Amino acid sequence: MAAAPVSLSGRFKGSFAYFTIKDRLPQILTRVIDTLHRHKNEFFEKHGEKGVEAEKRAISFLSKLRNELQTDKPMIPLNDELPDTPIWNQYLEYQRNVSNGNGQPSWFQSPWLYVECYMYRRIHEALIHNPPIDDFDPFMEAKIQSFFEAQQAIIAVCTYLQELLKNIEDLNENQLKEEFFKLLQVSLWGNRCDLSISAGEDNSQKSNLLQSLNDFKSFILVDDMENLWSLLLNSKKRTTTKESITRVDIILDNAGFELITDLVLANFLSSSKLATEVHFHGKYIPWFVSDTTKHDFNWTLKQLQSANHMWMSRCGMNWEGNLKKGVWVYHDHMFWTLPHEFSSMAQVAPDLYAELQKSSVIIFKGDLNYRKLTGDRKWEFTVPFHQALNKFHPAPLCSIRTLKAEIQFCLTIRLSKCTPSGGSQMQSRREMCLHAAAGGACMWQLLPPPTTPAAESEVLQSHRVGIPAK
Ligand SMILES: O=P(O)(O)OC[C@H]1O[C@](O)(CO)[C@@H](O)[C@@H]1O
Ligand SMILES: [Mn+2]
Q1: CA–centroid distance, residue 198 to ligand 2 (Å)
Q2: Fewest CB within 10 angstroms: 58, 65, 400, 420, which?
Q3: Domain boundaries along the sequence of the chain
Q4: Contact criterion met (CB below 8 Å) for 22 and 107
């Protein structure tokens, strides 16, 4: 197998990586600094002068970080006492070794994936170093705001789910499949509501997504829902004896509306018995602005339970009940907030890899997970997705993602529409389909574990398309 290509990086001027590091990451850092400024009085009320002193130190730390970023300074080791610090500093050493004498690892010379993850870990370091504000989540305000901005959309999906659950036992297989496809698409489009792409600007779902699925369908050129359905249905049919289980793992992405869509999907999987267990994987620290932490997950359930809307509170109660019964499990392994490509998981986090091997299917939500699945490298678009996974396949896996970065894979082509940029299409298998560019798109990809060469050639169908307006 050919060596993996170089990583996407800010050293490629004009790339989305370059734009992100040059413009977007400084914007996100500035927003964090502003947030700390705006919480000064709160820190004083809670902690007195100590709180204000801590806020000042954190701001000076973050201002220095922003200057390092903007002037392409070398990356420096972390020096807090967190359990992941040695792993981060080993990774910096690794980057030094692979930089092939291109000098020190730095913001515009090192892999985009590394420097972007490193920025969020340095933001966390700025807080950790400054008790008593060390437990402050600088993105919490934005996550809460996006939850409340999406109230109507949340009410709509919770209402839809509760109505559906009333007669879910009476649905035949086709009706069940139809509902499954709907809720998968709701979960897909929920991924548009990410605050890192918007650099923290409001990006919440305002309208009832269920009413737009048909309009949005044309933005999905090809999808693997059928394969995902067959995999789950076959597993359900095998789950006749109580010993065998169908476990679905959802590697979560953004809090707010997207998290609700993932919980709704999980509730449907449990109630339809397509899954006997659902495992959720969140982030260990505040991450990429809107990614879900354990606090966000629990806050969301509590918020729903106390909502003055019957179906929202019913959802919140049911979901808390599923966690208490153990049919739902929440995990937040620190691997998800390391810079590593997922192909390193077996070495770096063998416990997590072994946990995922218990899964019947792993659903990876969002763009960052997709980038880590494929190493965020300059792959040719015709490279098999499986090849890009670089032997990472603990279980059958599926990536559900709205495309926010250049990387993508096209393996087979079906009839597809022109991209917004009018990119040319080929209607033949294994031909490059669309010229990828930074922009929006959505895609489904399902990869069963490669048992035979034929399995490798099985399907991943992916196309990029424009993201529909909310
Ligand atoms: O929340 P998601 O879907 O992972 O999107 C986050 C993505 O947005 C970006 O910040 C912008 O593309 C990426 O760098 C990152 O992978
Ligand atoms: Mn995210």
Answers
A1: 11
A2: 420
A3: 16-138, 141-457
A4: no
Ligand 1 atom 12: the closest Cα is on which residue?
Answer: 404
For helices 25-38 and 49-70, angle between their N-to-C axes, nearest 10 degrees: 170
Instruction: List the residue whose alpha carbon is closest to atom 1 of ligand 1.
Output: 194
CATH assignment, 16-138: 1.20.930.60
CB atoms within 10 A of CB 99: 15
- Give domain 141-457's CATH architecture: 3-Layer(aba) Sandwich (3.40)
* Atom 15, ligand 1: residue with shortest CA distance: 368
* Buried residues in 423-444 as b, exposed as e (16+ CB within 10 A): eebeeeeeebbbebeebbbbbb
Each residue's pLDDT, cut to its tens digit, for the chain (470 residues) gives 567 899 999 999 999 999 999 999 999 999 999 999 999 999 999 999 999 999 999 999 999 999 999 999 999 999 998 999 999 999 999 999 987 666 789 999 999 999 999 999 999 999 999 999 999 999 999 999 999 999 999 999 999 999 999 999 999 999 999 999 999 999 998 987 767 766 666 766 677 778 878 888 877 754 688 888 999 998 888 866 656 889 999 999 999 999 999 999 999 999 999 999 999 999 999 999 999 999 999 999 999 999 999 999 999 999 999 999 999 999 999 999 999 999 999 999 999 999 999 999 999 999 999 999 999 999 887 887 778 899 999 999 988 888 776 666 643 333 223 233 333 332 222 222 222 223 333 445 555 444 443 332 222 233 333 445 55
Is residue 288 lining ligand 1, measured as CB closer than 6 Å? yes
- Closest-lying ligand 1 atom to the alpha carbon of residue 371: 16
Rounded to two decimals, the pTM is 0.88
Alpha carbons 384 and 432: distance in angstroms, whole number: 11
30 alpha carbon – ligand 2 mean position (Å): 19
